[in-house]
Amino acid sequence: MDSELKCFWMAFAFACILGLANGQQLKGNQEDPCKTKSRVVADETYCDRYWECVNGQPELYDCPNGLVFAGKNRGVTEGCDYPWRSNYCDSKQQANTPLGTEHCDWLYGIFGHETSCTRYWTCWNGTATEQLCIGGLLYNERSHSCDWPENV
Ligand SMILES: *[C@@H]1O[C@H](CO)[C@@H](O)[C@H](O)[C@H]1NC(C)=O
Questions:
Q1: Where is the Chitin-binding type-2 domain (predicted)?
Q2: Burial (CB count <10 Å: 0-12, 13-18, 19+), residue 99
Q3: Nearest Cα to 66, choosing from 40, 88, 43, 99?
């Protein structure tokens, strides 16, 4: 083999090793995001994880803490949403555990107030903002929003 050819094969082998080290293995029936048009698919086991095709390789991602995968360009962040907004987790569990801060059970979410029925907290990356229900409405824990008193 002349040295130019040797060099070519070494570069090829090196690129292959890099390619294998990159990306995660798809297990079981997990859909390959690189074989879809959207390049993003839900994880088959956990509702707060998803796979994205990055540089031709499937990569596993977690939604921001407290959010679950909703689909490409859906939800409150790019692809992730509040779990109660739909039946995202009916048949799947969440992989992540709550990372709470003051007033926030999870880093992202909407949570009831400790002492008031007309107030609640919206949490964004662990930062809580106090919200107020007006016009005689009360915070509804189930819908995570202000509601008529007879529904709460
Ligand atoms: C969330 O907050 C942490 C520190 O509290 C910060 O390091 C991180 O960059 C923030 N993430 C986002 C997406 O804003």
A1: 31-91, 101-152
A2: middle
A3: 99
What CATH number has the domain bearing residue 140? 2.170.140.10
pLDDT digits (tens, 9 = 90+) for 49-106: 999 999 999 999 999 999 999 999 999 999 999 999 999 999 999 999 999 999 999 9
> Does any ligand 1 atom lie closer than 6 A to the CB of residue 36?
no
Please give the model's pTM, rounded to 2 decimal places: 0.82
CB distance 22 to ligand 1 below 6 Å: no
Mutate to test the pocket of ligand 1, among 78, 124, 125, 127 (most ligand atoms within 8 A of CB): 125
Residue 69 placed within a domain: yes
Number of domains, the chain? 2
- Specify whether 35 is located in the same domain as 93: yes
